[in-house]
Fold each of these.
Amino acid sequence: MSRFAVVFITVVLVGAACASQTSQTPAPSVVDKPVAGGRIVDGFTSDIKTLQPVLSSDTASSGVWGWIYLSLTRNDPDTGEVVGRLAEKYELSADGLTLTYTLRDNLVWSDGTAFTGEDYKYTAEAVMRSKKTIRKGTFDNVAGAKDYADGKIDGISGIQVGNNGKTITIRFTKVFCPAVSQMGGAGAGGIIPKHMFSKYWDSKTTDTTKNIDDNTMNMEPAVSMGPFLFKEYKPGDHVTLVRNEKYYAGAPLIEEYYIKFYADSTAITNALKVGEVSYSGVDPKDYEELSKVDTLKGFRFPSFSNGYIGWNPNNPKAPWLASKEVRQALWYGLNVNQIIDKVIFGYGKPVFANTLPTMWAYDDTGLNKYAYDQKKAKDLLEKAGAKMGSDGVYRWTDGQPIKMKIETNSDSNTRTTILQIAQEQYAQIGVKIDPLLESFQALTERTRFSKPDWEGVILGIAYGTDPDPYGVWHSSQATSTGLNRVGWSKGDALITAQRDGPDCSQAARKRVIAQHDKLLNDEAPWTFLYNSDNLVFSNKQMQNFDPRPFSSGSAWNIEKWWIKR
Amino acid sequence: MSRFILRRLVQAVPTLFGIMLLTFLLTRLSPADPVDFIIGGSTDVTAEQREEIRESYGLNRPLPVQFVDWAWDMMRLDFGKSFYSHRPAIQLIAERIPNSLQLAVVGFVVALTIGIPLGVVAALARGSPADHGIRVLSVVLNAVPDFFLGLLFVLILGVQLRWFPIGSMNTIGTDCTLCWDRAWHMVGPVLLYANGGIATYPRYLRTEMLEILGQDFVRTARSKGLRERWVVLRHVLRNALIPIVSLFGGILTIVIGGSVVVEQIFTWPGLGRLLFEAANNKDYPVVQAAVIIGSVLLLASYILRDIAYAWVDPRIKVR
């Protein structure tokens, strides 16, 4: 190696060692009063697919159109309860069959056109006529929605707009308790401008072959009404938004909102360190390191997801999984607190049933906390009929060793580490685990309800803001594609009761959901693991940036953010 | 010559058909249902709605029918629409090709600019410390994985020292193609692109040159009293470089498939990243269109190369 090369490498390494991550402390500002202007850069790990809420099904796309199009309601950032946004108020009738929204005064689109209930109705009709949307389920109980989708009528009869477009009345065919939290976005999540889109697709048609699916404005929204307006999309690179001077809550102080697409979360972490990204969520492994960077400020709050090990009680090769005692033993035999410490570095809490601690329906009274107890696990296995073999592995009643697979996706370090820990700890209670790692696609395909050849699977789940357990736990979801892969059906009556009323009050629903959680906790079809925290870092120059558990997607106080220079 | 060209073109047809069949089968037979990706894990989609979605994308038809329809569309230059953005796949690919091509061409030029002189030095100074050094460098560069070199570049020169950008095509807020800012952003990815060439070309060239240096016409040139520099440049290097010309076709291979690592590490919005995301999302139309377009370009470049060779050396036509 030449002398030059040696000198060069030495300089690089010494320089790297000396370069301090904390050397870029912003100079103290002389002005602490909010000032307008500046750019915020938000890091995404994947490109957007569409800017049409009706068609969107990925988080990147909704992360962008969430700034552009709005819903009538949103969640309170701290409690998650539904509060008005474009709607000044909403009212669900005593019989639970009519929901009425009253819009705020003087709502306008970015081109000055008035926002009315007709925009809501148009969006709902666009959803029902789309062939490619995933959102039609919102209108299952809305009068006339199915007939409109089938082309029998030229509008959804159950949605009526009155009072000069200021009120929207939705009529349901049967009580649907989560309606209030689900109807505010007209099924799409964000309401689109009728006067723009109807140039390309007129909802007043019975021709079902016509729809909004291939509209040119789906990628280039010209008119919107969120805090920011679409300016430019460079595929694979970025989206630029600019502030909406007509935003109903007051124009944001931030001039430009720039969404930058990075290859992965590590690239975003690096971009945070060098000051390229203004704020972003980070992985638990990076939290401590980023906490030491003087230019950054960390935020930690609960997420809407949890991790679990699901047990398949229908696999004839592992008949012991049909026994409640065995499933309980598998919960007692796993040190969940150790998993939380080692795998997510303490950034999360154990959970013991479906409802997360941040949800309004959370009630852990009477839930078994399954404190790690190997002796209790062994007692339960023996109570279920298992007998210890000479090799330290329990034998089931039919004589076969209690030996089974647990599988997870190989690209998740978190889950593969959980699998290693589970394998070690279950061996200590006499249960032998064969680990199986595969691609996420192969994993979800193999562990469907319809496929009997799996025993345990480590996965995670992200919930909506309403605590309705229907999508995960109702027996109707135990299908070849549903999320109830373990096929648990004992909670159906409770799930239906909190969903179909007649009493849709929060107190009544909370009571029934708590009963469902207690049943689930006792039956243990899943070993619930943890509810991880959301970890976010922002550049310290960002002022009034204050993320809360329920503010994801559209930051609740965006109009107050400003950049200190 | 025309019969030779015709023969090569006819030979390309079954190759292309094979590629189409393989591409179709590999995408369709891989595990997981694309509808799962399209609905994004939604719990609100009923079986009936899933079927409607499947039907709207034509995924409910028997596989042979899907293949025939797709192949027929391809022949009419209809590459289909993305499952997600609903934009034409060809448009998505066309947006990304210039970005990838830019890196590949500059990377290739850099590789040649560094690799050829190193090869010449190694050949002329055979057995010297310089020769040994170049060969060791070659082995080291070949052995170290590209992603590792790329990450080192980003972490040390980008994050720690802040001498270079950590990725992207331009500084945020700057948008230009032929400018200093773009050149600055290209340093890392271009070096990574060029790494393979810098590792390979010197060894390749050294072997060729050593072989040519021992041939009669070189001795004749020297015996005629030509200056050594002239002999090397005019007779040896010129002949040794002819096989390297064939590497130009490799640029297309890099643009189509080999760019994934570089583009992922440096967040470069090229075709590699598009393909990576499309494959992850099971966006069949985009994956299939990219593979077929890439294959056609590659086949075309090979045919042109063969024609050029045949034109230069008529013996090839006979083989």
Amino acid sequence: MLVNRKLVLAHFWVAFAVFGLALFLGAWQMFVRSPLYTWISNPEWYYRSLTAHGTVMGYVFPTLVAMGFGYAISESALKQPLVGVRWAWAGFWLIVAGSVMAMVPVALGRASVLYTFYPPLIGSAFYYIGVVLVVVGSWIWVALMSINLRVWRREHPGEPVPLAMFANVAGSYLWAWTAVGAALELLLQIIPVALGWRTTIDAGLARVFFSWTLHAIVYFWLMPTYIAYYTIVPRAIGGRLYSDTMGRIAFILFLVVAMPIGIHHTFADPQVGAGFKFIHSAFTALVALPTLLTVFTICASVEIAARLRGGRGAFGWIMALPWDNPIMLAVTFSFVLLGFGGAGGLINMSYQLDATIHNTQWITGHFHLIFGGAIVIMYFAIAYDLWPHLTGRALPGLKLVRAQLWLWFVGMIVTTFPWHWVGILGMPRRMAYYDYSDPAISPQAFSVTLSAIGAFVLLISGLLFLYILATAHRQPAADAGAYRFSAPVHPVRTVPLALNSYAIWVALMIGLTVTNYAYPILTLAVRSDNSVPAVYVGAQ
Amino acid sequence: MTVQDGNHGAEVAARTERRWATVSVIVIVVLAVLAAFAGIHQVTMPQPRVETIDPTRLHLSGEFVESNLGSVLEPNGAVTVRAIGQQYSFTPACILVPAQTPITLRATSADVVHGILVQGTNVNTMLVPGYVSEQLMRFEKLGDHLMPCQEFCSFGHEGMWGKVKVIDKEEFAAKAKSGGRLSCVGE
Ligand SMILES: [Cu+2]
């Protein structure tokens, strides 16, 4: 049984509560801009809703999941009391306060700048300061994860760090460095303008800063999912992890190559030259490597589970898998959606192909498949797996859990596949409505309607998820035992220093960021002819 | 594969892993080389030069004054189109271009970030205030394309739709004889 259950539960409950609210907003947005809603709506409400949906889903929800899961990992993988519990609570409350502070101006229509900010559009300073507080709260977690590992190392000199904790700390370092890009944009550029100290801003430089955060943040969202692949899935389905080493290599690769690739978000931008666009495109290809390695290792681990259950033959073992086990279901759905999302990602990363779908609904479809599909499905799995240890009670019923996962999987496909299609047709994203009476747009009406239906399936699934978690608190008490992570097939006795520490990898991460970003940032920063007047939102 | 004990099993596992890792690396290298080849060989590199421009003075002087916006036939037979985006419209709202002709689109923003996307083509570029975007285009067939603003530019974003009208090469040349700037606004 975990000791700091309240701390972990607080993180998860706030995360999932705001996730539920953001799902409502998402479904509403899909509805009002589809042909299902024929009344005239005020587009301004749409952009408020979109800002709230993106801010919550992009910053608050995954950060809290990573933090709560991180605290649980630190305690149960290191088998030592969590150091710095008070600081952990302080970080949690900072995030709560920051989220409220950011959401009030959004609700009032004073910060409809979407979660990607879009300077020279400038909203209320409270919005940006709230986002900064969320990030600062999460940095406390980064520090605590590092400190807890250090305490453990002192007591266990030379021993291999448990894989779950190794990955957890790698994820926290990735996040700490990734967040710096947006932090620089907010602190050096946007907040001074929002407070009225300055009236001009370099929108091009801001977009480069944001690209620093915007890509690697996806890998921060992904970390809990990958940790679950390696350290929960094999154990939960009665198997073994095929390779502990491959896990370490995958997490190190994420740490090093996830960062210096963000300029691929600015392929169509005029403020970055072709050279750095090409370099970032090539580096983006590299980031497929840890995923390819992971797919192999996890499929092999799953196969081991099947063979331990008596599975035979080249493919016959697939039937022997525990398909009624929710974690089995979750990892399968997650892999399928990751496959489609990843294939789309390979198209986005090439700037020849990117031109066709840049800023269309295709992109919305792509990242909803990756984040909402592959990643969030494993967040569900993590919650289901941890909940009995957090509440001291069993889950109410696996049938309901399976139904929830199926609904999410189907909902994701019904929502995102039509988005990819209309994206290819050139339907721009981030629009409050489309004029379906225009003959050039009317053929897309059916696809948009499908997506809207998918959004409601997702909403139902999300509410079912919250219902299962809530009712689990009222089940009869049942001791779930100690929280365990997957055991590797071959027990790990020694690990090379490079796979057991971070110093060289962090140095490489920072070094690569500097080589891939310093020149584009400096050339823009030293110019004085590229700042433009701010355009204040909600002030007109 | 079977679950084996002892050193032999570990060796097999490590070897299998190494093979897969090698295949993965090859796949990625091939992808990067393909992108480089397509970029250099087919000249599909994005705009190489970074050009700045003061968005508050677009209407006063220089390349993007109102009288210079629209399409112009260059002496070498190529066409240059100049356009600006501002909340919440493009100028010109309807861009007139000839078919089967190399066209250079030069565009910028007068206020916030916008984007130009021509449906049914791969013409797609961002308009960032303070910077000039340049994009090469070529249209093979006659016809109309919708040209939405593809980037969120505040509350009126959903109403920001332009048009591209592709006409016959000779017809365009005849219209361009007077040397003025062409557009299809009001047609
Ligand atoms: Cu616009």
Amino acid sequence: MSILDSQSAAGAEAGAACQHLRSKGMFITGCQNPAVEDGQVGDGHCWCNLTQHVLGPDDDFVARRICIAGRQCFVATI
Amino acid sequence: MAKKYSWPDRGTTALLGKPQDRIDGIAKATGAAKYTYDVNFDKMLIARVLGSPHAHCKIKSIDFSAAEKIPGVVKCMAMKEPGNEVRWQGDPIAAVAGESEGAVAEGLKAIKVEIEPLDVYVKDADLAAAEAAGRTGKVAKNVQLEREAGDDDDEDKFAEQEIERLLKESAVVVEAHYGIDVITHMCLEPHGATVQWEGDKLNAYLSTQNVSGTAGQFASPLGITTGDVTVICDFIGGGFGSKFQVDNFNVTAAKIAKEVGRPVKLMLDRDIELKTAGCRPSGYIDVRIGADKEGVVTVWDSQHWGTFGATAGGVDQGVIPYVFNPKNRRRRATPIITNASPSRAWRAPNHPQACAMSQTAYDDIAAKLGLNSYDVFLRNLASVSNEKQNVYQAEMEIAAKLIGWKDKWHPHGKGPKKGAVVSGLGMAIHTWGGGGQPSNTNITIHPDGAVEATLGSQDLGTGTRTAIAIITAETFGLPLAGVKVNIGSSKYPPSAASGGSVTIASVSESTRRAAQDALLKIFELASKKLESEPENLEAKDGRIQVKSDTKKSLSWKEACSLLGMMPLEVKGEFKRRDDQGLSSSQVGGVQMAEVEVDRDTGVVRMKKFVLVQDMGLVINPKCAQSQMYGAAIMGIAYALFEQRILDPTTGAFLNAEIADYKLPRLGDVGEIVVEIYQPDDEYNRGVVGLGEPPVISPGAAISNAVCNALGVRVPVLPLTPKRVLEALERARKA
């Protein structure tokens, strides 16, 4: 899934997120995979905990729905 | 543990709910308060980043050879590699550390970067152009109708027919376009950190609104453990949602510091700060809205779009139309990707845009029907999404009195004229959550009576430090000066990040819990001396006394001496959904604006701005009012002045300096009146956050006031003189 389409599916449908995915909402709710329905917590801005940037180690974008199994740099959450 | 955590009854408090000066006010006013920018160490290097001058390119090579020869340059470090793509102007490519600002500036200039230019797209306001450029994502759609489609109906076709029928049956239909441009966070203190290694342990003095959540963000990219990182932030010069993360340039500073064995301070320059460290998404909408003859909206049909910049996203469709939920509504949202910096959460993500894109439409219904906007908003309260009709109604009445709505309001465009100057009134309403999040507070009571409250929270300038002191002192019956508050270190008990208006509820919960539990232990010790049961004691006026016989008492110090040699430490913990009535969530809020508009120059001048806000129990009204004043000024800023201007061809951020990025001066904001709405039921529901709510409505309220003055809608914020004149010209030609 490209970054352009990454907003079109619910997070839960995408599968488990990479353990290095971060978003503001995670720090507000204390959750690894915050619900996306809230719309208040600012989950739209995601970053990678390895690069501290909106681009991951593979130089592609970070987002809840694309930082999932199958991506080269994906690391499963334990 | 206390049987039940609770706040003192209203009217019985010494400090709580009464206006208090900030305990750090003098330190801030005198410059004694040390912000990240003020932290200096011996042998410290200054570092800066080179931001990409190109909005979209591929890096071919980075050559430091000339930069490294500049006297005073100590270290150059790449932040991109050959082959990496740069997606927006200002994205850091490299960092230079040196002995002085001058050496670093020369070093940055001497870096040679070879690039391959790529196509640039930045026109987020133009949906058709974005579609043609292949820059749009999938359209998200949400339809809710009173009538349900039959089993054999095509749902999209049914919705189309139903909406057309409802619009046709409406007494009035408004078909319009509204919008709100991208703005930046413009933190007075830019993003950055001063970092210092002690062996393999890192001390990071970071400008952050997330003290407890950032140590791990340094640890992962540096390959160390979170326990080896200490993040410190005693004071912060603005965050507004943009300072939750450790940025890659913070990590680069730590890498340089480790490599050269010296502390490093890396703060962003203003232009890089604006280009890369946070902006608010744009929002533009085409809408058809139908209402009955009383102005009650019956059907809403909209398509909106906007950009998160280089990452996908836009204003959430769930908040359109804003606060009001008409029974029939269809919302479609399209994300646009541009070569501009990615947005970050900006005070009340989604809400200011949603308010500006939809409550303007409600006002246009009033204008088209020739009705008073106040009445139309009032009649539509039955559809509010948060069941706060009564709160909104009460707040509207208060706001109307404060601004003189009844006397000053006139039909749109039909008010008195003073030459070219016309005046008008507008209003808007908003909502927000703001409940408490996990937080821990340690209360330490020393045998000499000293009290400390310690937690890994931060004070964004909202008065958090003072609120913690008030709660602790109130619980122990002490003066404010009798409590020391320790916040701003990741080594303190974890507390919530400051975002989403959660801080005050979070720290209030954990602090009050810890203080009540600690007081119970002091009561248990004192009860033996006072020959009374612990539950019959109270802490008041610096004494522990028997409620029924206050002559039987111990001074606070005498009571604490009963601890013996060692201090008492009690932890207060709040977890989500562990509610006991100390905090709550969901607020309303009403704002009204009075403006004057010069039809010759297009200049909008604020005359008066009224904010009425509920927020549950108010710990410190003085800081709450201060927060509302700040929100009003920030709201006026984005309504009338702030605007990120990108070159449509190159994507260059043309006004990325304070001198060019227009903000209001004191003379621009007019009279601001703030009113806290706190009847007993608000006090009794506990604490709710205030950071977001009052900054939501200004855009819509001011736009509505301008429309009321002119009789013409200026559709897109900010309402610059150019846009006002263009709207008048369009109206004249029509």
